[in-house]
Amino acid sequence: MWCFGQPLELVSVLAFTVCLGIAVDDTIHFMTRYRDEAAMTLDQRVAIERTVLGVGAAMVMTTVVLLAGFSTVMMSDSREHHIFALMGSGTIAAAIVGDLVFLPALLMLFGRSQRKTPLLEQVVPETALAATHQ
Predict the structure, then answer these.
(1) Is 21 inside any structural domain?
(2) Which residues are CB-neighbours of 62 under 8 A, at least 6 positions away?
């Protein structure tokens, strides 16, 4: 708010807090799917790509629905409703950019899997697979 020369008001704090909680939900979905995908492969890039393909569309659709809802509130005559909708839209839009742009980049840098072998090979070792095919 300071960057835009706006005073900090109760309604803007409430909007930011509510929307931050909603935005964290998408991050949790992304990280849960990433953890599952990373357990299946040693390739970090593949795990991230599968994660984005698996949950990205749902995240974008929920964001579009939320932004559409907030945009209708922006047409309100009430100043407080207008501020709430602007803060909500800004927070939700920033969150989707963070989840689909910055989070995968940060996972590439810092999310190296500590697993030495993919989960599938831990459950069924290659020697056991080879023995069953003979």
Answers:
(1) yes
(2) 26
Per DSSP, the chain holds a count of helices (H) and strands (E) of 6, 0
The 8-class DSSP code of residue 4 comes to G
Into how many domains does the chain fold? 1
List, for residues 27-76, the tens digit of each pLDDT value: 999 999 999 999 888 889 999 999 999 999 999 999 999 999 989 988 88
CA distances from 9 to 67, 74, 79, 95, 124 (A): 22, 17, 11, 21, 58
Global pTM? Answer: 0.73
Taking the CA atoms of the chain, what radius of gyration do you get in angstroms? 21
Give the whole-angstrom CA distance, residue 22 versus residue 62. Answer: 10
CB-based burial label for 2 (10 Å; 0-12, 13-18, 19+): exposed
Question: Is residue 2, in this structure, part of any structural domain at all?
Answer: no
pLDDT value at position 84?
86
